[in-house]
């Protein structure tokens, strides 16, 4: 078998890889993240199929099955190389905790559930702290109003002006490039 036949068969014996084709037969060059992920998923499924074929060949191995075994091993190596190259186009980060759970034979959804529960707990703690500070502010304003009524009234006026200015700036920032203003639906 010459090197040109070798490249079209895809055994990778001379270190070359065949051109990757999509289902329509056209070379894949798109940078669409979803398409890249689908290509990696397809490569993983193909690798699993090759591993199954390899398992069947090894489990019933005899001297006559040596050549098919080598071809399947070469096909697996080519597909693993293809998978690595396709995965470089995907920017997916998997937390190590998820991989450790999978290694331990556990469901990775447990990690998601634990993260969500942790976020809920932290949110409740933060909300409690916020409510405590609001209560302290209210109590301090009440006490200050008893001792310094004029200064507290002046403070409240400054707060109202500051709030109005902040609202005006927020509305100015939410205007569209053509001069229209985004309208928020209030329920």
Automatic annotation (TrEMBL):
<protein>
    <recommendedName>
        <fullName>Mediator of RNA polymerase II transcription subunit 10</fullName>
    </recommendedName>
</protein>
<feature type="compositionally biased region" description="Polar residues">
    <location>
        <begin position="16"/>
        <end position="27"/>
    </location>
</feature>
<comment type="subunit">
    <text>Component of the Mediator complex.</text>
</comment>
<keyword id="KW-0805">Transcription regulation</keyword>
<dbReference type="InterPro" id="IPR019145">
    <property type="entry name" value="Mediator_Med10"/>
</dbReference>
<comment type="similarity">
    <text>Belongs to the Mediator complex subunit 10 family.</text>
</comment>
<keyword id="KW-0804">Transcription</keyword>
<feature type="region of interest" description="Disordered">
    <location>
        <begin position="1"/>
        <end position="32"/>
    </location>
</feature>
<dbReference type="Pfam" id="PF09748">
    <property type="entry name" value="Med10"/>
</dbReference>
<dbReference type="GO" id="GO:0006357">
    <property type="term" value="P:regulation of transcription by RNA polymerase II"/>
</dbReference>
<dbReference type="GO" id="GO:0000785">
    <property type="term" value="C:chromatin"/>
</dbReference>
<comment type="function">
    <text>Component of the Mediator complex, a coactivator involved in the regulated transcription of nearly all RNA polymerase II-dependent genes. Mediator functions as a bridge to convey information from gene-specific regulatory proteins to the basal RNA polymerase II transcription machinery. Mediator is recruited to promoters by direct interactions with regulatory proteins and serves as a scaffold for the assembly of a functional preinitiation complex with RNA polymerase II and the general transcription factors.</text>
</comment>
<dbReference type="GO" id="GO:0003712">
    <property type="term" value="F:transcription coregulator activity"/>
</dbReference>
<dbReference type="GO" id="GO:0016592">
    <property type="term" value="C:mediator complex"/>
</dbReference>
<keyword id="KW-0010">Activator</keyword>
<keyword id="KW-0539">Nucleus</keyword>
């Amino acid at each position: 078998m010459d090197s040109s036949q070798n490249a079209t068969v895809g055994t990778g014996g001379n270190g070359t890889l065949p051109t990757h084709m999509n289902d329509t037969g056209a070379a894949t060059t798109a940078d669409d993240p979803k398409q890249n992920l689908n290509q990696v998923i397809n490569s993983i499924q193909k690798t699993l199929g090759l591993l199954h074929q390899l398992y069947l060949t090894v489990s019933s191995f005899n001297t006559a099955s040596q050549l098919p075994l080598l071809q399947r091993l070469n096909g697996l190596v080519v597909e693993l190389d293809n998978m690595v190259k396709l995965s470089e186009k995907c920017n997916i980060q998997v937390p190590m905790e998820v991989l450790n759970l999978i290694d331990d034979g556990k469901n990775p959804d447990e990690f998601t559930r634990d993260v969500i529960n942790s976020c809920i707990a932290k949110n409740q703690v933060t909300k409690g702290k916020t409510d405590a500070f609001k209560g302290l502010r209210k109590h301090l304003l009440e006490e200050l109003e008893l001792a310094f009524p004029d200064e507290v009234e002046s403070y409240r006026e400054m707060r109202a002006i500051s709030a109005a200015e902040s609202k005006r700036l927020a509305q100015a920032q939410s205007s569209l490039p053509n001069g229209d203003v985004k309208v928020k639906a209030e329920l």
